[in-house]
Amino acid sequence: LIYWQLFLAFLVPSIVGYGGGPAFIPLIQNEVTNRYGWYTIDRFGELLAIANALPGPIATKMAGYIGYEQGGFAGSAVALFATIAPSLLAMIMLLGILLRFKDSPKVQRMTGLVKPTITVLMGVLSYQLLFTAWHKAGTIHTVVLLAVGFLLLEKFKVQPVYVILGALLYGGLLIR
Amino acid sequence: MAGYIGYRKAGPAGMLVALFATVAPTVAIMISLIGVLSVYHDAPAVQGMLKAIGPIIGVMMVQLTYSFFRQSLKGIGWLLTLIIGVVSLICYQFLGVHPAFLIFALLLWGLTAKRGDRA
């Protein structure tokens, strides 16, 4: 049963979250925290942070890890398969067609219409993550980390991995 | 990408090998990293680390949210963005509609809409 759940949990997001990558995050979160209740938002945030600090596409890292934790190596393989298979099939069978229509107004419009929904999903997830973070780390640390994190990431364009490592250091030394 | 190239070069087996080589290392690192963290999960330093990571990941998600918002404005204009955004928020957050249905409905709408329609 767990394998079937893992399969569905990653298959659905990877089909509808086409465009892959970031759009996949809130969709996965919805499956693993709301639908199947494997993780709290909190724990999901931790996984996301660690996945973000490592190289490679975010979707496969999350799928590989969550699959492993829920169902061992076989679970990992199932989750990865569900994540990769739809786009892979599409690529092998339809690459030519997709590429040809990529700039067509219709495909453009379809992609465009989905964007506000993805924005909302991401916004809700951001809010939940920030809220639990504030709850756990307290007001002062949260404000400091938010301000410094924002400056480094947005203004100085520091690589996320260094910001995360910095935060780990800060937390390890200063937060109790 | 790796899957496709592997398939073209060496068929299905090539595809699996290429995918495995691409995905396995980072997943393995992640599993061991989290494994180490959970062994020391109760140490105050590790607790502090886990607490500190929250706000940062929050900032990253806000950045992503904003970039999707910008793309949306650019693609379909503010009015449609606002309408679809508000409807999505109500459906997802308050009515508990599964996001896959929302996205599917929107794709269907985009597919069937007449060329002359807005957006």
Q: Hey, which two chains have the biggest interface?
A: A-B, 84 and 68 residues
Largest sheet data of chain B: none
Distance between the termini of chain A: 40 Å
**How many helices of chain A does DSSP assign?**
7
Outline of chain A? globular
Report the strand count of chain A. 0
Helix and strand element order of chain B: HHH
Mean pLDDT of chain A: 85
* Helical content of chain B (DSSP H or I, runs of 4+): over 70%
Structural class call of chain A reads mainly alpha
Low-confidence stretches of chain B: none
Average pLDDT metric of chain B: 84
Total beta-strand segments of chain B: 0
What low-confidence regions of chain A span 5 or more consecutive residues with pLDDT below 50? none
Structure description:
The complex is a heterodimer of chains A (176) and B (119). Chain A is built from seven helices and no strands. Chain A has helices at 2-16, 24-35, 41-53, 58-101, 105-137, 139-155, 160-174. The model of chain A has no long low-confidence stretch (mean pLDDT 85). Chain B has 119 residues and is mainly α. Helices cover 87% and strands 0% of the residues of chain B. Chain B contains three helices and no strands. Chain B has helices spanning 2-39, 44-94, 99-112. The chains are: A mainly alpha (176), B mainly alpha (119). Chains A and B meet through helix 1, helix 2, helix 3, helix 4 and helix 5 of A and helix 1, helix 2 and helix 3 of B.
